[in-house]
């Protein structure tokens, strides 16, 4: 499965043995998926939990402009847990892995005394010295986002206020089946478009602050420019607060030198200009009346009311 040519030894040995492509550097990321924090069994089918678990790692690789190679899963489960749940969880994880040519090359299992804990490690690669970091933004750079924002957080809000309501995963795919932007990240790196980049896992306000902090800059963004997700029938835009602070959209937030022109879509994904980088520290949100206010990091806190 996947890029087996890079896996010299995998599951069945004490360690995996992997070979990076020539003149490439390793990208390594790790993410927890915790029951009650990142998912709830009464809301999220096992396949969804597996898909979202791997998405977290793949999205980090995308944010560096890299290509994923292998994944490692450590899974802790309560005693006497149903094997059918585990089988379905792996089905969701392995389907996404297959979609992106990723091999599950190892991991571990253990007993948990308090719910399900899944830790995913993803190994990727990027050409030497070409990884897109958070620290490359410069004053005058434009700020862009991919896709639409706020759909995942708005779905959580709906579930919180209607806990008995069953939402069909395919009808709310922005939350249940997010798509890691691997191809988009690679194109941004290959074309030399992005000066800095991060994936939107914690929310626009928080993740833009990360870029500004690492780059030693500030930013101004326009509220009316932020692309908001649509939900429901008839479709309606989610509230601005979800687009600003909602997490787990797994879109890409990136900066581009002012002199570079960016297409409106890249690999079928909409690209939207939302602001620019400034010398002045801090992030300013400019409303439709051209009034600015400080935008503080207020990333979404899952399952908390």
Q: Can you summarize this structure?
A:
With about 300 residues, the chain is of the alpha+beta class. It is about 25% helix and about 30% strand.
Describe the structure.
25% of the residues lie in helices and 30% in strands. The radius of gyration is 20 Å and the shape is globular. α1 (46-63) runs parallel beside α2 (83-99) and α1 runs parallel beside α5. It has two domains: 4-127, 60s Ribosomal Protein L30, Chain: A; 134-294, Phosphoribosyl-aminoimidazole Synthetase, Chain A, domain 2. The model is unreliable at 301-305 (pLDDT under 50). The chain contains seven helices and 16 strands. The protein is α+β, with helices and mostly antiparallel strands and 305 residues long. A hairpin with a 7-residue loop joins β1 (7-9) and β2. The N and C termini lie far apart (42 Å). The protein has helices spanning 46-63, 83-99, 151-161, 173-176, 182-190, 204-215, 240-245; strands spanning 7-9, 17-18, 24-34, 67-77, 103-111, 117-127, 142-146, 196-199, 218-222, 230-231, 236-237, 252-256, 265-266, 269-278, 282-286, 292-294. Strands 7, 8, 9, 12, 13, 14, 15 and 16 form an eight-stranded mixed β-sheet that branches.
